[in-house]
């Protein structure tokens, strides 16, 4: 009962923190509000959540990373793959070495291997935190794609570096050849397992559906189980469960393009995954806030409060400086390669480079990773500076969130950005092709349904009415210049009028249901139809 009560309290805290974030007079990213809410709960409530890192990784990270891999725009990911790999691999190693030596210099009592472990665990950026920041700050789309791609891939490199740093602290030895081989196995094995699990589940589900029929609920449940299966299988084979979950999600986006799932499954799945994302994402940051008081208390036993704050600020600043240097150097190298190929280049403002550096916020990966530090060395003595390392990692998470939420709006305000590529032409072409396919299908179906019937003219009249709508859509999309702009304005006016009509319909149905002039079952069905139509027109 106590565990259930804690879970319900955490979910309630997620809801209330969202309300509080909207009520605040200043704009704060939701994760910061949730962290503060968690700290308040820990101060007043009489419970302490024992955060097992292994359970934490299993419950929260697979579904969230799976969803990020599923929904991340693949065209942007592959277009900037070189930059993303440089950040996800090169920057992590650069950070581990640079920040590791800096931490050891700053805190001589912390052994160098432990300093490297701490640097490794704070090196990965967090896709969940990045998405949360982007929801409140207008980050350019291309920069956001790079940040999301980087944060999806750098978890494995950071955690592998941490694993070897911890091993060096436990044994006193380190082998570069062994580390490189292990990293290649961990990364490639995790990616391969994620792809295999998703494709295997899709093929099995398709085989069952062809022979025994399908049901929307089972498809949604399978999609929820895939990230856990990929993660557990990868961990069992000593590969990266994180990369397996990401690869499974990216593969799911390609499986989805086959269009073989039920319409109801896609609709329900979208709603279910949105809820999972909202709840799990919120609980992560509420839990972080709930852990902060005891983390501070444990670290304060051996270090003064002032020095701990200085350490956090210094490490956060060092991370930002190294990231700025790497991003600037990487960008120069990318522009040099583009110039060698004869491409037109546009030198971005230093403010955009600074924004890319500041947007590298830390989150759940850092917290869960630092909590996996062992309690004792091989000889049974306590692991050196463990409490301090946990405090510093938690402090870096909070400071990176604060710095991004405060600094990004100022850096990006009034900044002239390179124009984003327009996909209007692609959309018009796709809509025209879809409308032409629909007309052909309607004509074919009308002939099949009306063949040999005495009322065949009714089928012909109905098909003409429907095909006229598609022909209007084609004519509107084929126009160019001022005519195209006028058509789009008319479409927008029509959309707003349709939305007004649909909302009025729904209000009237609710009124009929309240006065018992309509049964609940019929009212729910009608409202669902109107909701689907409104969702279609609300997206333009």
Automatic annotation (TrEMBL):
Keyword Hydrolase (UniProt): no
Keywords assigned: Antiport, Cell inner membrane, Cell membrane, Ion transport, Membrane, Sodium, Sodium transport, Transmembrane, Transmembrane helix, Transport
Protein name from the UniProt record: Na+/H+ antiporter
Location of the Cation/H+ exchanger transmembrane domain: 12-413
InterPro entries: Cation/H_exchanger_CPA1, Cation/H_exchanger_CPA1_bac, Cation/H_exchanger_TM, NaH_exchanger
Lineage top rank: taxon: Bacteria
Family of this protein: Belongs to the monovalent cation:proton antiporter 1 (CPA1) transporter (TC 2.A.36) family.
Main location: membrane
One Pfam assignment: Na_H_Exchanger
Transmembrane segments: 55-72, 84-107, 113-135, 156-176, 182-204, 271-288, 308-331, 352-376, 388-408
UniProt membrane topology term: Multi-pass membrane protein
Compartment(s) where it occurs, according to its Swiss-Prot or TrEMBL record: Cell inner membrane; Cell membrane
Function, as annotated: Na(+)/H(+) antiporter that extrudes sodium in exchange for external protons.
Keyword Transmembrane carried by entry: yes
């Amino acid at each position: 009962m106590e565990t259930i009560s804690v879970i319900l309290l955490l979910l309630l805290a997620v809801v209330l923190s969202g309300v509080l974030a909207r009520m605040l007079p200043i704009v704060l990213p939701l994760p910061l509000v949730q962290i503060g809410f968690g700290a308040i709960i820990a101060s007043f409530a009489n419970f302490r959540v024992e955060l097992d890192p292994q359970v934490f990784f299993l419950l929260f990270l697979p579904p969230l990373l799976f969803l990020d891999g599923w929904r991340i725009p693949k065209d942007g990911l592959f277009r900037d793959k070189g930059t993303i790999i440089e950040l996800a691999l090169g920057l992590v190693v650069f950070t581990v070495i640079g920040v590791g030596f800096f931490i050891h210099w700053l805190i001589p009592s912390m052994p160098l291997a432990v300093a490297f472990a701490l640097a490794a665990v704070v090196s990965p950026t967090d896709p969940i935190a990045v998405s949360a920041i982007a929801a409140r700050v207008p980050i350019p789309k291309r920069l956001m794609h790079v940040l999301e791609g980087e944060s999806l891939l750098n978890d494995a490199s950071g955690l592998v570096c941490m694993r070897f740093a911890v091993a060096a602290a436990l044994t006193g030895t380190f082998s570069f050849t062994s580390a490189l081989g292990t990293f290649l196995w961990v990364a490639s094995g995790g990616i391969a397992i994620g792809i295999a699990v998703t494709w295997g589940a899709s093929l099995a589900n398709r085989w069952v559906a062809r022979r025994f029929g399908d049901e929307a609920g089972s498809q949604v449940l399978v999609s929820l189980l895939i990230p856990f299966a990929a993660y557990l299988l990868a961990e069992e084979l000593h590969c990266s469960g994180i990369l397996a979950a990401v690869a499974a999600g990216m593969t799911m986006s390609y499986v989805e393009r086959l269009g073989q799932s039920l319409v109801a499954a896609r609709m329900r799945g979208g709603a279910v995954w949105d809820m999972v994302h909202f709840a799990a994402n919120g609980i992560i940051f509420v839990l972080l806030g709930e852990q902060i008081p005891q983390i501070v208390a444990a670290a304060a036993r051996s270090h003064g409060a002032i020095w701990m704050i200085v350490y956090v600020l210094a490490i956060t600043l060092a991370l930002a400086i190294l990231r700025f240097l790497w991003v600037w150097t990487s960008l120069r190298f990318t522009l040099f390669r583009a110039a060698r190929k004869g491409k037109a280049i546009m030198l971005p403002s230093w403010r955009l480079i600074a924004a890319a550096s500041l947007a590298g916020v830390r989150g759940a990966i850092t917290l869960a990773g630092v909590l996996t530090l062992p309690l004792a060395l091989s000889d049974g003595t306590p692991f050196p500076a463990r409490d301090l390392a946990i405090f510093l990692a938690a402090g870096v998470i909070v400071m990176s969130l604060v710095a991004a939420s405060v600094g990004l709006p100022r850096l990006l305000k009034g900044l002239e950005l390179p124009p984003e590529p327009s996909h209007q032409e692609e959309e018009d072409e796709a809509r025209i092709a879809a409308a032409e396919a629909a007309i052909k299908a309607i004509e074919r179906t009308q002939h099949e349904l009306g063949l040999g019937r005495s009322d065949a003219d009714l089928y012909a009249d109905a098909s003409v009415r429907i095909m006229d709508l598609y022909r209007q859509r084609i004519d509107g999309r084929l126009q160019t210049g001022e005519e195209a702009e006028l058509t789009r304005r008319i479409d927008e006016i029509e959309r707003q009028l349709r939305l007004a009509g649909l909302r009025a319909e729904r209000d009237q149905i609710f009124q009929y249901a309240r006065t018992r002039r309509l049964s609940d079952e019929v009212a729910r069905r009608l409202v669902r139809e109107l909701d689907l139509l409104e969702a279609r027109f609300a997206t333009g």
